[in-house]
Write a structure and sequence with these properties.
Layout (H helix, E strand, L loop, with lengths): L2 H35 L2 H36 L12 H31 E2 L2 E2 L3 H27 L3
Antiparallel strand pairs: 1-2
Helix pairs in contact: 1-2, 1-4, 2-3, 3-4
């Protein structure tokens, strides 16, 4: 693959990954703590209003990161056969892809699930904050795995 095209794909891969990571950080460390500190009916109304756009942004950025990651693995000639998946790079690549798939499969349903699990009518359920943290735990682990894999792949491990 042409070096300029490969560089452009790598830039977009990093950009979409940064959008997803930044969105997750914002949601987990700013949005939810703010929502849980507001009156429950107000918080539910706001969350319902931003849910669709947030889901689209997070899903599309993660989807693009995933597709561009596959393209990079093949385009930089690191993954050029089934045997190459057995190399250190190939195994790390597969682990990153699997962690991305976990995020892609969980993501679209998480927002609506939280809407149903955090509020009972217009009131917060008891331990709403613990429920939010519990539902995002697997996301935190998957993001951590992906970041470690990205570092390892940069160094060819």
């Amino acid at each position: 693959m042409n070096a300029d095209v490969l560089l452009s794909i790598q830039f977009l891969h990093i950009l979409f990954g940064a959008i997803y990571l930044g969105g997750f950080i914002y949601i987990h460390f700013v949005l939810w703590p703010t929502l849980l500190s507001r009156p429950s009916a107000e918080a539910k109304g706001f969350y319902g209003a931003v849910l669709k756009k947030t889901t689209i942004l997070m899903g599309s950025s993660l989807g693009m990161t995933f597709l561009l990651g596959i393209t990079l693995g093949i385009g930089n000639h690191q993954i050029n056969s089934l045997e190459s998946l057995g190399t250190k790079y190939g195994i790390t690549y597969l682990i990153a892809l699997l962690a991305n798939l976990v995020l892609l499969l969980q993501g679209p349903g998480r927002g609506p699930a939280l809407l149903n699990k955090i509020w009972n009518g217009n009131q917060f359920v008891p331990d709403a904050a613990k429920t939010v943290k519990k539902m995002y735990r697997s996301t935190q682990v998957a993001i951590g795995v992906i970041l470690i894999c990205m570092i390892l792949m940069v160094y060819g491990l």
